[in-house]
Amino acid sequence: MTSSNHENAAGPLTRLWGKIVGFALKLKKLGKDDPRRIIHSFKMGLALTLVSIFYYFKPLYEGFGLAAMWAILTVVVVFEFTVGSTLGRGLNRMLATLTAAALGIGAHRLATLSGETGEPILIALFVFIIAGIVTFLRFIPQIKARYDYGMLIFLLTFCLISVSGYRDEEVIEMAFERLSTIVIGSCTSVIVCIFICPVWIGVDLHNQIATNIEKLGNFLEGYGEEYFKVSEEGQPRDKSSILDGYKSVLSSSSKEETMANLARWEPRHGKFRFRHPWKQYLKVGSITRQCAFKLEALNSYLISEIQSPPEVRSIIQEASTAVSSECGKALKELASALRKMTKSSAAEPHIATSKDAAENLKSVIRSSLSKHDDILQIIPAGAVASLLCEVVKCTEEIADAAHKLASLAHFKNAKPKVTPEQKELPSQGIVQPVSGIDGMHHVITINEPSQSLQENRNLPPAMAPRMEV
Amino acid sequence: MTSSNHENAAGPLTRLWGKIVGFALKLKKLGKDDPRRIIHSFKMGLALTLVSIFYYFKPLYEGFGLAAMWAILTVVVVFEFTVGSTLGRGLNRMLATLTAAALGIGAHRLATLSGETGEPILIALFVFIIAGIVTFLRFIPQIKARYDYGMLIFLLTFCLISVSGYRDEEVIEMAFERLSTIVIGSCTSVIVCIFICPVWIGVDLHNQIATNIEKLGNFLEGYGEEYFKVSEEGQPRDKSSILDGYKSVLSSSSKEETMANLARWEPRHGKFRFRHPWKQYLKVGSITRQCAFKLEALNSYLISEIQSPPEVRSIIQEASTAVSSECGKALKELASALRKMTKSSAAEPHIATSKDAAENLKSVIRSSLSKHDDILQIIPAGAVASLLCEVVKCTEEIADAAHKLASLAHFKNAKPKVTPEQKELPSQGIVQPVSGIDGMHHVITINEPSQSLQENRNLPPAMAPRMEV
């Protein structure tokens, strides 16, 4: 009885301890996945401690008084993980405070003119109208994407200035205090964010787009082997696989749009200019996603219960594997060139080869596949083959979009040895990957949200964030 | 010369006027798309005007002093479009302020004990440590999803209380003022948000899931006709079509997750309980999306350049159209039952019929399609047929998930005339849609972000938002 009680008492404690250990391990994993998170936490501590000096340092305190707390408040709400986000919020907050303060002072003056009875009524009316208009404007998608925070702060400041002015006649002084402390808070945030291990969301977007293309390439390179391995064993493969990396591309749309919106706030850094063609990144991303939908269809034939028998598949094995792996190589070349920010035509021979292989695949189907009797057994293999032919088209589209991006963003040409000679040989056999570029590839197997951040650590030195403005 | 100058002068003015008119039309469209936006703007104005009374009303002003502006600030940042969002932010803000105020007072007391030199150092250390920890914790996905705003406010309040305490000894009074004004601001927001034309995000999510299933149903109902119309004209159809409604389902994942997270804050309303099975909505949504990927593959055969010739397609026309339209009807029945929050087995006869039709389709392929010589011409039609067979499986999965949702959410049974008799006839011929339910369907053609909001206006009276807590 006692021992059972003892066990019961130890039970909850042990469970609690287990939970604490689990939580600690989770935190450790978070930091390990992306060490920039740990650095960011330190930066936040530093920025807040810096701005607290306004309270410690007497002369400043006497100058600003209680309004100095606005500086602390500003740092807490403006300081974000990436430079684009911090700059966007900081600029929004400063500009919105400036315009709202001016408008608030004007509204207050106007209300004062109407005498003691009219003043509160007029101010309430102003607040009601401005609040309604600003709230409605926030529904406009373009404003929501870039100026939502500014609209919020505009409304906030306008209310504070015009309403508080009713009691306290030092409206202008108050507005000036609020504005100056907000400028100090915003600048502290921006400076700490940019000058200590900055995280550029533009770089993250750039890498995410390259990684997504690479994921498709990985899938296609491995697809042939995986599909025909199934045929040898006669069994559909497991549902989880290292090929599943492409799945995260299917739903990357909204994340990419947010990143592009934030990237537009960032100044020139490293090889990224101020007006970097972020919209073209979104186009490349969208075409990549279209291609990922085709891969989803291809993948469904891997796990489908209705399969063509091995003897049917083996007919198309050679040609299909060639198409798939050449497309995969082309995509990985494109990803690698994009990642290194170079103009490269290293993908073109692969695309040309994949086109030839697709023609070859069609003639194999026409000549050999039709000799089989049971059409139901032929259809899955035939569908895979025709999807692969469409993937060739997709790969070309991705290549076009990526080349356009390279020229819009003024990427430099890759080393000459890759370009001119190989351009002359569009339909040579299977082209070996250029070794200098191939060293860049790393197969991505884990399918996690934190992945794109994690991968940025593998940036080549040329891509390491650098501040030039 | 003068007339040219005049034209130049009129040019910019005309263009400016054009821009103003365009902007006004855009605003009008925003309001027309979802009139709840206009109501929301009025509600925001009302809430802010209400809370401004704290400044007008003398006794209250003397009680709270300048801290009353926190109430205004709270309304601006807490008041959101939906009840779930407003409640989530309000609760986060109140709880975070409470705990941070307590911790801030504690930190301040501890620092005071260490003497005049030690005090600022100790407070700076506390701020640095707490800022670092809180910032890091915000990276945990579960915390980010529901308590991100609370963490921000916790950090903010802790800094304000502990730092300002160094100068101003009335720390406890300040903490109380801040807490009470924030409670007043939050409660004002929540009350206005709930009691004046509330927008329940749970209802929005519910409708979005039903609408998504309906979109797939619309596609499938129309697909057969569209695919074989192509065959008659011998030309691939235009790229844009009323069938494209399903495309918005492809990327709905992150939006649905956000909605489910916010819906969990909402109290009981209408037929929605407090612990409504929001997770099951996400599961239904995810399976619906899987099915949408299949439709994307089907759709690609509509616009593909390689098409089976009409004579090949006509062989499978009857069976394919039957599969497609029966799946479509089943999905639309499921969507209709979900929308009306009833348990209904009206979809089951359609599913059974579609299964029979799929078997029939397979035997048609086996017997007739294989008589053709050119296998390349058969493959597209064969692939469409095999995709349709997979869609039958998807439809069943959606039905299972929707039935599970209906039982978890305790939906009531539909009118008895639909259920028991028809359950006994799983493999009858083609079932006519139940007319009473069929009147609910409306074809959705515009593919816009605002669509899901817009559609909520078409709610049946039973679903109209109602507050029961």
Description:
- The structure is a homodimer of 469-residue chains.
- Chain A is mostly helical.
- The first copy, chain A, has helices at residues 2-33, 36-56, 58-64, 69-78, 83-113, 115-137, 141-164, 171-195, 201-233, 247-250, 253-263, 278-303, 310-339, 347-367, 375-408, 420-423, 435-438, 451-455, and strands at 342-343, 412-413.
- Helix content of chain A is 74%, strand content 1%.
- A two-stranded parallel ribbon of chain A has the order 1-2.
- The interface between A and B is large, with 78 and 79 residues.
Layout of SSEs?
The structure is a homodimer of 469-residue chains.
Chain A: H1 2-33, H2 36-56, H3 58-64, H4 69-78, H5 83-113, H6 115-137, H7 141-164, H8 171-195, H9 201-233, H10 247-250, H11 253-263, H12 278-303, H13 310-339, E1 342-343, H14 347-367, H15 375-408, E2 412-413, H16 420-423, H17 435-438, H18 451-455
Parallel strand pairs in A: 1-2
Helix pairs in contact in A: 2-4, 2-8, 4-8, 5-6, 5-7, 5-8, 6-7, 9-11, 9-12, 9-13, 11-12, 12-15, 13-14, 13-15, 14-15
- Structural class of the helices, strands and pairings of chain A? mainly alpha
Q: Gyration radius of chain A, to the nearest Å?
A: 30 Å
- Give the tally of β-strands of chain A: 2
Name the overall outline of chain A.
elongated
Mean pLDDT of chain A: 79
- Kindly report how far apart the N and C termini of chain A lie: 74 Å
> Uncertain regions of chain A: pLDDT < 50 for 5+ in a row?
417-469
- Quaternary organization: homodimer
- How are the strands of the largest sheet of chain A arranged? 1-2
Helix content of chain A: over 70%
Query: What percentage of amino acids of chain A are in beta strands?
Result: under 5%
Helical element count of chain A? 18
Tell me the series of helices and strands of chain A, N- to C-terminal.
HHHHHHHHHHHHHEHHEHHH
Of all chain pairs, the largest interface belongs to:
A-B, 78 and 79 residues
> Could you give a short account of the major beta sheet of chain A?
2 strands, parallel
GO biological process, one term (chains A, B): monoatomic ion transmembrane transport
InterPro entries (chains A, B): ALMT
Family (chains A, B): Belongs to the aromatic acid exporter (TC 2.A.85) family.
Biased composition (Polar residues) (chains A, B): 448-457
